[in-house]
């Protein structure tokens, strides 16, 4: 949803569409591990949809591929 929303705002305000897309793709890696689980829980609560997710005990590079 970030890209379509940023494109709509960029078009409406006559700003750079490329800069808008790049701007929404930047994620600060410090708080990201705390933000994404909260986003998941809020999304599950709001939509009522739940998928059983096997969260890994340890997070390593091979799990991110």
List keywords for this structure.
0% strand, 65 residues, mainly alpha
Describe this structure in words.
This protein has one domain. The radius of gyration is 16 Å and the shape is extended. It has helices at 2-13, 17-25, 32-47. 57% of the residues lie in helices and 0% in strands. The longest helix has 16 residues, at 32-47. The protein has 65 residues and is mainly alpha-helical.
Q: What topology emerges from the helices and strands here?
A:
Layout (H helix, E strand, L loop, with lengths): L1 H12 L3 H9 L6 H16 L18
Helix pairs in contact: 1-2
User: How many structural domains can be distinguished in the coordinates?
Assistant: 1
- Cα gyration radius (Å): 16 Å
Fraction of residues in β-strands: under 5%
Question: Which blocks of ≥5 consecutive residues have pLDDT under 50?
Answer: none
Mean pLDDT: 82
Which sheet architecture does the biggest sheet show? none
How many strand elements? 0
Apparent shape:
extended
Task: Find the structural class using helix and strand composition.
Answer: mainly alpha
Fraction of helical residues: 55-70%
What's the N-to-C terminus distance?
Answer: 23 Å
Order of helices and strands: HHH
The number of helices is 3
Task: Characterize this entry briefly.
The chain is mainly alpha-helical and 65 residues long.
């Amino acid at each position: 949803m970030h890209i379509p929303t940023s494109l709509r705002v960029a078009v409406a305000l006559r700003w750079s569409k490329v800069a808008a897309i790049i701007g929404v793709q930047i994620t600060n890696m410090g708080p990201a591990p705390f933000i994404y689980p909260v986003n998941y829980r809020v999304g599950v609560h709001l939509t009522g949809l739940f998928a059983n997710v096997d969260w890994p005990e340890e997070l390593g590079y091979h799990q991110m591929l």
